[in-house]
Structure prediction request, 281 residues.
Amino acid sequence: MQRIKTIKDMRALSRGLMSEKKSIGFVPTMGALHEGHLSLVRRSKEENDITVVSIFVNPIQFGLKEDFNKYPRDIDGDLKKLSSLNVDFVFIPEIRKMYPDGFSININIGGIGDIFCGAVRLGHFNGVATVVAKLFNIVMPHRVYFGQKDFQQTVIIKKLVRELNFDIDIIVCPTVREADGLAMSSRNSYLSPTERKSASILYRALKHGEGLILQGKQDASYVKTEIEKILNSEPLISIEYIGIVKPQRLESVEIIDSPVVICLAVRIGTTRLIDNLPVSP
Ligand code: AMP
Prediction:
């Protein structure tokens, strides 16, 4: 496994691989890697000649009061995990090279970036779109792997690729969960043992919603209320949103008569957690 530090080296490498007609799979991450990330890496390894993983905690997707400084970082652990999976290249760019003095472009993703997670994290998805577009231009991958865990992000990245004509396939991989159903996340490390226990209710609430839909309940507001009741039974949790939306464009539905995604965000103490579950009635 080779570690690439500069944009110039990464581009030269990708150009070389392309001239050799090698397919490049790419997994962008912010590090503190867990099984969720590694599932994307394994999938990329299966489907491509070469796999590139980037580790970059992107400052422009964090709000001023968010956790950029304390976001978990573990480069040594990450490198061990990636090398044990025989990843070909790890790209770890420097912040000042990604955002040199005077950098001012910010991709405006439009209204889809202002709802659900975007309503609370102002500008977050524009920051995500901007770094992802930069990384796509640098790595020049054929396929890029994202997790269903960050469902709104996947919808936005697909829109970015479509509307800016990136010649890239976006592959969304299933959410990897802990034994009690909690979606793996680098931010789970913020939870105290008591908070961690109560966090398992997110998945139970989603599964309950799924059960109602599979039983034939079509009224989205009824299903949301039932999910809300379950979440509210856990005193440590405060609900940020519960949505039942169409998978392609995040439009909220009133009647559930085609595939939907149940998505939710909560706070447990100071930690914000998100999760979602696709359901086909
Ligand atoms: P992050 O490092 O949090 O930016 O995540 C990098 C990629 O890993 C994103 O595409 C995430 O959606 C994906 N990811 C994070 N957690 C999980 C999980 N539990 N299961 C599957 N993919 C995940």
